[in-house]
Amino acid sequence: MTTENKENKISIKDKIFSAKQLPERTVKVPEWDGVKITIRAMNGTQRDHWDRFTAQRTLKAKANNETVIDNLGMNAKILIMTAYDSDGELMFSEDDISRLQECNGQVLDRLAQISLALSGIGVAQEASAAKNS
After folding, report:
1. Edge-to-edge strands of the sheet including 24-29?
2. Cα 70 to the center of its chain, rounded Å
3. Residue 40 forms beta bridges with which residues?
4. Is 102 within 8 Å of 29 (Cβ atoms)?
5. Tens digit of pLDDT for each residue in 69-114?
6. DSSP string over 84-127
7. Is the separation of the CB atoms in 17 and 34 below 8 Å?
8. pLDDT-wise least confident of 2-6, 45-49, 128-132
9. Predicted structure pTM score
């Protein structure tokens, strides 16, 4: 491999790693006194954790012959991974799940749906992916 080809490979890799990887959307939440939260798509590690979290619930439901998967705490879990403050820091931690669950369910659902859409998760995203494959 020539020096020029090596430089091009490094340049391409640098471009990949320096690119803005995650789409985000800042949302004003009137129910929370107008606070603004930035919802950012899950990164690779967060997506792996989300997939494990949902797979464990699916396996548990199948083992118990349940037709409905236990989704208790899922919206809170999504926000823990994707809600950022104005400094770009995650707003919540695992310790906040129970307190988040006490918040307005409509708000949690709305914010979670934004996160899922940005992360490419959900029925519409899966249908779009299937159509494009």
Report:
1. 24-29, 35-40, 83-84
2. 19
3. 24
4. no
5. 556 678 999 999 999 999 999 999 999 999 999 999 999 999 999 9
6. E-TTS-B---GGGHHHHHTS-HHHHHHHHHHHHHHTT-SHHHHH
7. no
8. 128-132
9. 0.71
